[in-house]
Design goal:
The protein is mainly alpha-helical. Helices cover about 70% and strands about 5% of the residues.
Length: about 230
């Protein structure tokens, strides 16, 4: 039975890894295209002073379709990644991580469905992603540390740092910025700070969680090949 389970785990690992790579890649492409096309009232997009969601504004962001489509298309592979990753581990804790990861993926999908123009629905979707993602990454880090399988314990330390980045974003105040006072895209004249701490940390969350997904994906593929 153990040999059969081991073979099943090895067969599953590359699929989980590639789903993570595809999902993360779609988000990166959508963000990059929208950021490159962004221009409003003479301002170019800057991750130092702009929120991620500004890329999806359907009225003012020229690349909104790429950004919103990237989020929606990435949801399915990332949902599979988050749920299938937990199948490598036994117990109730991985099941909680699977649930939280699934919730975060659904939240990301609806961030694309409801861009910031529909602010109430957008905020609900965004908070679903951020809280679900934070819980999923923290719990998966505990699981990986306690019961390392195909993944090394270094992934647990990486994940804990990602989880702390999520938490710092969720509890940061809004008023720490340098330069012009921020306005929303619909306001005139539009301006963003030269540096806005909470917007910058939001980007750190996205970059770090995508890095976590890609690192785990690569580890699963490489280790499965090595043990196969």
């Amino acid at each position: 039975m153990r040999l059969a389970e081991h073979r099943s785990e090895l067969a599953l690992a590359p699929r989980v890894g590639w789903s993570g790579i595809v999902g993360a890649g779609l988000v990166v492409v959508g963000c990059a295209v929208a950021a490159l096309l962004f221009e409003h009232n003479g301002y170019r997009y800057s991750p130092l002073g702009c929120f991620i969601s500004e890329l999806g504004d359907v009225e003012h962001s020229r690349g909104h379709a790429a950004f919103n489509a990237g989020l929606m298309l990435s949801a399915a592979p990332l949902l599979y990644f988050m749920i299938a990753l937990g199948r490598h581990y036994r117990g109730w804790l991985p099941r909680v991580a699977q649930l939280a990861g699934g919730v975060a993926s659904v939240g990301a999908f609806f961030v694309g469905v409801f861009p910031m123009n529909e602010l109430a629905a957008h905020m609900t979707a965004a908070n679903t992603f951020f809280y679900g993602g934070m819980i999923a990454v923290f719990i998966y880090s505990i699981v990986i540390f306690v019961a390392p399988g195909l993944l090394p314990r270094t992934m647990a330390f990486f994940g804990s740092m990602v989880g702390l980045t999520f938490a710092s974003f969720l509890f940061l105040p809004l008023h720490y910025f340098v330069g012009p006072a921020p306005t929303l895209l619909k306001d005139a004249p539009y301006q963003h700070p030269d540096f806005w701490l909470i917007a910058f940390v939001e980007w750190l969350v996205l970059v770090s969680v995508l890095g976590w997904v890609l690192a785990i994906s690569a580890a699963l593929i490489v280790r499965a090949r090595g043990r196969g």
